[in-house]
C-alpha cells in the first residue's frame, strides 16, 4: 500500500484536481457560456496562497495562525477570484459563443504576462519553497484536501441543478431570448455562473500551490485552457460527472502510457479525436442515454383553480 | 336621463410606436389602446409589422420612437424580464420553447419572476415550500393544456400543435395580466383551430386576462376577437369591431390589392 501510494499518490491527487478544474468550467457552461478563464483564476488563487505562505510581509500572520493559515489562503483566494470574476464577467458576458471564449483566453494571457512582470509574484522565476499544507509529509495526503472539495462541489452542483437558479441557468443555455421573455434575467445568472466557476478555480489554485511546492506563470496558460476544455468535452458537459471523468481520464492516460515514450501523445490525440467523433455528448453523456429516466412523479394534492392562478396581485 | 356609458379601463396604451430597421420602417407611428378583459386581434398581410409590434411591446426590440404603457406604467425601455414581471407574457410565432428540456421544466422555469429562492436557498434546500408550489402549479398548467400525461417528455418531441399549447402554458406560468399570442393557430388543422377559439376564451375568463392575438386566419379572428386592429406596411389602417373592420375599404384594399 505504501509503495502504491508513493508511486501513484501524486497521480491520484492530480486526477481529482483535474476533475475539479473541469467542474470550474462546467458551471458557466450550465448557463450556456463557453468560458476558458479557469486557468486564470486557478493561477490567481495559487499566487494568493503562495504569497500568503512565503512572503516575509505575512510572517506575523503565519506565526499567529499556525496551520490555520491554510484555510485562510483558500478563503482569500475564493474572495479575490469571486470579485475578479464579477469585474471580468460583467463586461465579458456581453459577448457570445466563440467571442466570449476568445475574451477569456485574452484574460488568461493578460494575467500570465502581469504575473511574469510583477515582483510580488516572483517574476519569471515564480515562487519557490511553498510550505506543505498541515505539515503533510507525502504528496498523496493532499487527497484529504482535494477529495472533500470534490465531494462538496459535486453536492453543490447537484443541489444547484434541482433549484430555481439551476433552472434559470438551463433556460439561458437553451434560449437566452426566450428565457428573458419568460422573466429570467440573463445577465445576472450568466455572471453568477461565471463567478461560481471563478471561485472554484481559485480555491483549487490555493490548494495546489503547496501541493506543487512552486508556483509560476506557467500555471495559467492558453494550453491549460484548452486542456481543461478537453476534460469537459470528452467527459460530457451536461452531467456533473462528465468533467470529473474527463479530467481523470485525460490526466491518467499520458501517465499510464509512459512506457510508450513519445507515442503516448499520439494515443492521447487519438482519444480526443475518436471521442469527439463518436461521443459528441461526451463519455458520461453517452452512458446516460442507456439509462432510462423515470417519468416525473406528480405530487399528490390537486390544486384548486385559485391556486392555479397563483398569488394574484391586484394591479 | 341616460346614465353615462360604462367606461372600460384601458390597460395598454400605445402612443406613436415606431421602429426603423435601417431604411425600412417596420412599425410606423402606431397608436391604439386595449381595454381590460378584451380579446384584441392584430391582423395584416405578411410583413406588415405585427411581430415587430409584439417585440416592441415585450421589450425584445427597443422602439425608435413612441411609448407603450401598461396601466400608466411605462413598458417601453424595460428589459424583457421586467416586462414579464410587470404582467405581460407572450408566445412566439416561430415557437421558442426550451427544446432540450421537459415540458414540466419549461413551465417551471417560467415561474421564475413569481418566486424568490436564491443560490443558497437552492443549495441548502431551504426553499422546499416554494419548490412544491412551483411543481404543483406546473402540473396544473400542463393539465390545462392537456399535456400532463407527457410532462417528462422533451419539448422538442411534441407535435407542432402541442408545442403551441405548451408555449401558452409556459406564458401563463409567469402569471400574466396580459397575454400576447403570436399566431397561435399557425400549423393547426380546422378542428384544432375551432378548439383553440374556445380555449383562448376559457383561459381569458379563468385567469382574468386581457389577450392580444396576431392571427392570419380571418374566420378565427372574426369569431374570437372583440376588437381588431389592421396593420399594413407598418401603419395602423383600421381599428374596430370585427364586422366593421371587415367592411373597411382600406382593409379590403390591403388584402386584395388596389387597382
Number of helices of chain A: 14
- CATH topology-level fold name of the largest domain in chain B: Rossmann fold
- The CATH architecture name of the largest domain in chain B reads 3-Layer(aba) Sandwich
Give the number of DSSP strands of chain B: 10
Mean pLDDT across all amino acids of chain A: 89
Structural class of chain A, please?
A: mainly alpha
Give me the strand/helix succession of chain A: HHHHHHHHHHHHHH
Total domain count of chain A: 2
Shape by Cα distribution of chain B? globular
How are helices and strands ordered from N to C of chain B?
Answer: EEEHEEHEHHHHEHEHEEHH
Q: What structural category arises from helix and sheet content of chain B?
A: alpha/beta
Count of DSSP helices of chain B? 10
Stretches of chain A where pLDDT is under 50 for at least 5 consecutive residues are 311-315
Q: How many strands, which pairing sense, and closed or not: the largest β-sheet of chain B?
A: 6 strands, mixed
Tell me roughly what share of residues is in helical segments of chain B: 25-40%
Percentage of residues in strands of chain A: under 5%
Please tell me about this protein's structure.
The complex is a heterodimer of chains A (315) and B (259). Chain A has 315 residues and is mainly α. Chain A is built from 14 helices and no strands. The longest helix of chain A is centred in the N-terminal third of the chain and has 29 residues, at 2-30. Chain B is an alpha/beta fold and 259 residues long. The radius of gyration of chain B is 19 Å and the shape is globular. Chain B is built from ten helices and ten strands. In chain B, strand 9 and strand 10 form a beta hairpin. Chain B folds into two domains: 9-87 and 177-259, Rossmann fold, CATH 3.40.50.300; 97-175, no CATH class. The interface between A and B is large, with 42 and 63 residues.
